[in-house]
Automatic annotation (TrEMBL):
Sequence ranges assigned to domain Aspartate carbamoyltransferase regulatory subunit C-terminal in this UniProt record: 104-147
Annotated SUPFAM superfamilies: Aspartate carbamoyltransferase, Regulatory-chain, C-terminal domain, Aspartate carbamoyltransferase, Regulatory-chain, N-terminal domain
Note on how the cofactor is bound: Binds 1 zinc ion per subunit.
Official protein name in the record: Aspartate carbamoyltransferase regulatory chain
Gene3D superfamilies listed in its UniProt record: Aspartate carbamoyltransferase regulatory subunit, C-terminal domain, Aspartate carbamoyltransferase regulatory subunit, N-terminal domain
Function: Involved in allosteric regulation of aspartate carbamoyltransferase.
Lineage: Archaea, Methanobacteriati, Methanobacteriota, Stenosarchaea group, Halobacteria
Record family assignment: Belongs to the PyrI family.
Encoding gene per record: pyrI
Chain residues that bind Zn(2+): 111, 116, 137, 140
Domain Aspartate carbamoyltransferase regulatory subunit N-terminal positions: 8-100
GO cellular component: aspartate carbamoyltransferase complex
PANTHER family: ASPARTATE CARBAMOYLTRANSFERASE REGULATORY CHAIN (PTHR35805)
GO biological process, one term: pyrimidine nucleotide biosynthetic process
Keyword annotations of the record: Metal-binding, Pyrimidine biosynthesis, Transferase, Zinc
Length: 155
């Protein structure tokens, strides 16, 4: 049972997306992967390391007036596999999107190998295969296991 005294008090939103049960400390990386830096002018609420029954502590993100696509949700799963994504319209949760690991991630990450063809002057879009312990560059084989959030391509 959750203890109401320990619940996060962040206002409900009217329209938008609530990303709940994000692994503790990953909220800023999730914002980065969604390309949200605050300059959009939409309301963003961030709860970090708040108590959670399921996870111990969790992060929660509320983004107003934006509904995440399934593609965005899938990429998010790499950083926050436990996350639940709630689409809110007129204060009601109208949809809970399943977070599933995608098989491939195209254009969203940069390869850490500077010699990789995706890092040369000729533009070649990055593509990574999702493997058990991370993601593998389809061009050079480099594997990113940890800190995937540090390899986000700039939007
Ligand atoms: N939420 C919100 N604004 C709304 C409606 C819901 O910010 N207008 C938030 C809730 O605070 C919660 C999340 O969206 O963090 C999911 O809402 P809901 O499905 O009602 O909560 P639970 O049933 O607790 O969700 P779950 O079973 O996924 O834990
Ligand atoms: Zn590469």
């Amino acid at each position: 049972m959750s203890d109401p005294e320990r619940e996060l008090r962040v206002s409900k939103i009217r329209n938008g997306t609530v990303i709940d049960h994000i692994s503790g400390g990953q909220a800023l990386n999730v914002l980065a992967i969604l390309g949200i830096d605050g300059s959009e002018g939409v309301g963003v609420s961030i709860g970090m390391n708040v108590p959670s029954d399921k996870l111990g502590t969790k992060d929660v993100l509320k983004v107003e007036d934006r509904e995440l696509s399934q593609g965005e949700v899938d990429v998010l799963s790499l950083l926050a596999p436990e996350a639940t994504v709630n689409i809110v319209r007129e204060f009601e949760v109208v949809e809970k999107k399943r977070v599933e690991r995608p098989e491939r991630v195209v254009g969203l990450l940069t390869c850490p190998n500077h010699n990789c063809i995706t890092n040369q002057d000729e533009p070649v879009e990055s593509a990574f295969e999702v493997v058990d312990d991370g993601v593998r560059c389809e061009f050079c084989g480099e594997i990113v296991r940890e800190d995937i959030g540090d390899h986000l391509a700039v939007h």
